[in-house]
Model the fold of this input.
Amino acid sequence: MDVRMYTVGAIQENCFLVSHEGAKEAVIVDPGEEAPKLLAALEEHGLTLAGILVTHTHFDHIGAVADLHDATGAEVWCPAGEAETLKDPNAVMRWEGFGPFRGYEAEHLVKGGDVVSLAGLDFQVVSTPGHSPDHVTYALPDEGVLFSGDVLFQGSVGRTDLPGADHDTLMRSIKELLDRFDDAITVCPGHMGPTTLGQERRTNPFVLDLLSKGNA
Done:
């Protein structure tokens, strides 16, 4: 499998271009901004865009969704509970100096337990709220990869001081990932660099605190 990370926008969000090695189709996860950069990457690697997956609808993760759709015709998969935010991202969270951002009405709404089959890959949808109300993680366990959005980072976790966020809920979501997937699985997060569940189990202070309470 081929996973390429592109860090985009002023908030340095990680967007992922995912495909089978040698394939002609790819999936983009969380295109936060800089649509021309992402379109150039598709062209450089000779790929067509089979679909756009959204983990959650904060502006730094969806800023290029509409432009990518317009350029490629690719349809969008979005957490069902955040579809209205994708349609009007400026109405929910506005930060001075950022935006406005184009909204988009997703063709497909997802929830935990769904499987999204695109570009020859079967993405398992895992419900991981806490950073946002209906955040999801997209998992490819056979390929050893999780696309965790803003749930789990290298040595940290998603912030919970935003509208609809809750720390206890976030920690339960992290427990779900720890319980469900092998420690060797690579975590491709929305910010900072990739890590593994095992690395975070051993060194992440938030996860260590979770473990110390007997919750994972």
User: Anything to note?
Assistant: The mean pLDDT is 94. The two ends are 30 Å apart (CA to CA). DSSP finds seven helices and 14 strands in the chain. Residues 160 and 204 are 17 Å apart (CA to CA).
